[in-house]
Amino acid sequence: xxxxxxxxxxxxxxxxSLILLGAAILIVxxxxxxxxxxxxxxxxSQCGQASWYALTSKTASxxxxxxxxxxAAHLTLPMGTExxxxxxxxxxxxxxxxxxxxxxxxxxxIDLSRAAAEELGFINKGVTQVKISVKNKFKQFLKGHDxxx
Length: 149
What we know:
Elements: H1 11-34, E1 43-53, E2 71-73, E3 82-87, E4 93-100, E5 108-113, H2 114-120, E6 127-135
Parallel strand pairs: 1-5, 2-4
Antiparallel strand pairs: 1-6, 2-5, 3-4, 3-6
């Protein structure tokens, strides 16, 4: 290999050059090909009404209901499932953890803790239209409440 500067033919300099080349290739891969910020998890969604509740009793999971935590009640999702909730009326989103069963009111999709309702901006209204999304592995636990396209 021809190097204009004879000092670059030294084996140690070649190693440094290879390391720099490898680092440059890695940067290009991360920045332009892999793009971690664009990787999307496959999810399943439902749309419907959400309400909020602030009991201080035990939940179906056995833990005490804490209205200050971002938790939810869902009829079929396994306890501990993380659910991404979007308020369709104002676009606010957050993630809650299922720790209770419900809602038992007709046509309600999910009951949220008071803290979740506050963050989603419907505390005074009591109910709102939401879209909930979970990882595809939980698809079997969701029936009905299809989102209109």
